[in-house]
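hey
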């Protein structure tokens, strides 16, 4: 069955700005945080760069929070809650990842159904990271929790989720056809549409009736009619 590929705008410029602010600052914070903990010679410089990345992270979180409540369409948090009808797609996505792309990849419009709750979890973890990082220089102990240790643990979980996200996006781009990586650059995803579902133009059809083959003069006549 023939298909047509359609290019559809899915992500606005604001949501892409929030995404890349969060993505870039998260990777930056992971790298500089590792240097602070493991490279005494670079700890001071890395710490200053770490706080710079934290500022970008807070900006990205604030923008994403605003879009989550006041944005349009898939930008809103209500569209990041899995629907009952999406559970088959969630199972299919999980099978796709576990099979290294050998199982078929289900279709979705904006958010991968499997990742909806993981995105919300990631936003929460990043918020807790920012809060613990802000508090721990002056208040290292809160409710018997040693914040530097909590901060380190949260960073480890964020690293794991980030690696999972990168793996899933790369696999989707290699095995799928929606161009998820470029969608977060130009805002467009690609969708396959069955040609039979498209509206065909009303083209006039030409036909010849048997009664018109011979006329009073014996000449053949033809007529055109629209079916």
């Amino acid at each position: 069955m023939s298909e047509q590929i359609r290019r559809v705008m899915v992500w606005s410029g604001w949501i892409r700005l929030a995404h890349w602010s969060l993505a870039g600052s998260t990777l930056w914070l992971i790298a500089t945080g590792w240097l602070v903990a493991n490279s005494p010679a670079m700890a001071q410089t890395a710490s200053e760069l770490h706080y710079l990345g934290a500022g970008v992270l807070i900006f990205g979180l604030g923008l994403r929070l605003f879009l989550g409540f006041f944005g349009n369409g898939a930008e809103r948090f209500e569209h990041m809650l899995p629907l009952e009808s999406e559970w088959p797609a969630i199972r299919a996505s999980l099978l796709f990842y576990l099979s290294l792309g050998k199982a078929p990849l289900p279709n979705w419009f904006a958010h991968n159904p499997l990742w909806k709750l993981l995105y919300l979890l990631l936003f929460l973890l990043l918020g807790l990271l920012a809060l613990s990082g802000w508090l721990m220089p002056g208040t290292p102990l809160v409710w018997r929790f040693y914040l530097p240790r909590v901060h380190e643990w949260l960073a480890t979980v964020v690293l794991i989720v980030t690696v999972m996200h990168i793996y899933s996006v790369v696999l989707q781009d290699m095995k799928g056809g929606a161009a998820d990586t470029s969608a977060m650059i130009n805002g467009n995803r690609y969708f396959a549409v069955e040609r039979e579902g498209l509206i065909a133009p009303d083209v006039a059809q030409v036909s010849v009736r048997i009664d018109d083959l011979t006329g009073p003069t014996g000449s053949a006549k033809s007529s055109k009619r629209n079916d």
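The beta strands are 3-9, 141-142, 145-146, 188-194, 206-207, 223-224. The radius of gyration is 28 Å.
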